[in-house]
Design a protein that fits this description.
about 220 residues; alpha/beta; Rossmann fold; Arc Repressor Mutant, subunit A; 2 domains; about 50% helix; about 15% strand; Tscrpt_reg_LuxR_C
């Protein structure tokens, strides 16, 4: 008499969003599905990276706009440190720029919060099968942008600023001092000031206020 196959372990999910109410709603959706279990929650990208390194998780669901470190920054960091971890971006932004940045950051899916109750579970299951999940309309954006660039003889656009400069830009816009930023990123305050000067020069901006406005337009901080 053959024994029944052992029950498959549920997919262990790390959920990161800076709004507790959103996390509660998403958790209800995921925990209500067989085979999915939220085992860790984070309120910002930096906390998500730290939790992923100390908690046994299979899948990270990351919001885009979060304090300290955005979901896209966290996705890049997690892709480098934990290449086996599947990553989904859950966002309110139906935005081609964020969509392409998410793919470049290593995410395997991009889900809009407005239809999370319909798409998120399917996206989680697709991620665990190593299949991409794109929100409705993203395929059209992907193909259109690719064909436009091929037609113009261009490759994918280069980043205007480096990842380190982006980290510093976000923290400056959140009101942190150079000393605080240095402590958060484990670099000297003088190095922070050098990066900040480079940012002003690269972006053609004059001061912290203009850097903050740029960070808002780039989706690094919420207005």
């Amino acid at each position: 008499m053959s024994l029944p196959p052992p029950a498959q372990r549920p997919t262990r999910v790390l959920l990161a969003d800076d709004h507790a109410l959103v996390r509660r709603g998403v958790r209800l959706i995921l925990d209500g599905e067989p085979g999915l279990s939220v085992v860790a929650e984070a309120g910002d990208g930096a906390e998500a990276v730290a939790l992923a390194r100390t908690t046994d998780v299979d899948l990270a669901v990351l919001d885009v706009a979060m304090p300290r470190m955005t979901g896209l920054q966290a996705a890049r960091e997690l892709s480098r440190r934990l290449p086996e971890l599947r990553i989904l971006i859950l966002t309110m932004y139906d935005n081609e720029q964020y969509f392409f940045e998410a793919l470049k950051a290593g995410a395997c899916g991009y889900v809009l919060k407005s239809v999370a109750d319909r798409d998120l579970v399917e996206a989680c299951r697709a991620a665990m099968r190593d299949e991409p999940f794109l929100y409705p309309g993203a395929e059209t954006a992907l193909v259109r942008t690719y064909l436009d660039r091929v037609h113009r003889g261009e490759g994918l656009p280069e980043r205007t600023i480096t990842e380190r400069e982006e980290e510093i830009l976000k923290l400056v816009a959140e009101g942190h001092t150079s000393k605080e930023i240095g402590e958060l990123l484990f670099i000297s305050a003088k190095t922070v000031e050098r990066h900040r000067a480079n940012l002003l020069q690269k972006l053609g901006l004059r001061d912290r206020l203009e850097l903050t406005r740029y960070a808002i337009r780039a989706g690094l901080v919420e207005p």
